Amino acid sequence: MGLEACKSSPAARALFEKADQILGVSLMRITQEGPSEELTRTEYAQPAIFVTSLAVLAAREAAGQFQRESFAAAAGLSLGEYTAHCFAGTFSFEAGLRLVRARGLAMQAAAEAQPSGMTSLVGADAATAERVCARARGDGVLVVANLNAPGQVVVSGDLAALARVPEAAKEEGIRRCIPLVVAGAFHSPLMAPASSALATALAGTEMHSPKFPVWSNVTAAPVQDVDSIRALLARQVVEPVRWEETMRALEAAGCTEACEPPPGRVLAALARKCAPSITVSAITEGDG
After folding, report:
1. Is it the case that residue 3 has pLDDT exceeding 70?
2. Are 139 and 106 in contact (CB under 8 A)?
3. Alpha-carbon gap, residue 145 to 78, rounded angstroms
């Protein structure tokens, strides 16, 4: 992650170097050399994704390949919402990185306090996923966490409840369940301690109204008021990500083109399912 961008763009490398100074660890080393066990810890994974995305965008911008002022909206899935806000000018890179670090640490702590995880239900819709949760929950915690696209819903909960998901899903006609490689039950009530810690961090962060609307995961609607942004970002870690609704809302608002920075090209694939009239270009690291 970030290797090609740093090789080809001084602007990208400068952001990684700044991140290393802020974090006090070599994020550049972790993202580019691993080991994967270290990178996948959410306390490192979240800053790594945030910095990689913004570094590649900075490389593009420095190369004159786009102007930030030409964008009409921004959105990001889960952690990506912070990237979207930083890109839109809601907060600085430095402030955003500190927020993302606080979010990652708080979510890691919550995950370690209660062993938990997430499972993707392939072929499920929201109503079916809710029935699976009701069947498998028992006395534990199990909720719909991500509504990503038609046929792609993720549930989140404690390990005992998740162990009952495959059988419950089979009874509801779900053809496949995929456990996700994540630290814990994100976007569920088990992240309540992280939400509280994040609310404190958000309250102490200088923010401005974004230069263009940023769509909220919680409401699937644009938000520009600073107080609302703080409240929604704190709620985001305990509430479902309504990504399919977000893409459809952007489509209805007239969005026809979008770009997705690294790492990955997941959102471009989801857009084809959710909002086919939006053409999403996945940016590669070497473009800058």
Report:
1. no
2. no
3. 10
Q: Classify each residue of 223-239 as buried b or exposed e, where b means 16 or more C-beta atoms within 10 Å of its C-beta.
A: beebeebbbbbbbbbbb
Record the tokens describing residue 283, joined without a space: 């940016």
Find the catalytic residue in 187, 188, 195, 216.
Answer: 187
Helix axes 192-203, 93-113, angle to 10 degrees: 160
Average pLDDT on 109-135 reads 96
| 78 a catalytic residue | yes
Checking if the pLDDT of 239 tops 60, the result is yes
State the greatest distance between any 2 C-alpha atoms of the chain, in Å, as a whole number. 56
DSSP 8-state assignment for residue 202? H
- Phi, psi at 260, each rounded to 5°: -120, 115
Mean pLDDT confidence for 104-126: 95
- The torsion region of residue 25 among left (phi > 0), alpha (psi -120 to 50) and beta comes to beta
State the amino acid at position 177 in one-letter form.
C
Question: pLDDT tens-digit profile of 43-62?
Answer: 888 998 999 999 999 988 88
- How wide is the angle at C-alpha 61 spanned by C-alphas 9 and 84, nearest 5°? 110
Q: Is the peptide bond before 213 cis (omega within 30 degrees of 0)?
A: no
Report which secondary-structure segment, H or E, holds 226. Answer: helix 226-236
What end-to-end distance do the CA atoms of the chain give, in Å?
15
CB 183 within 8 A of CB 191: no
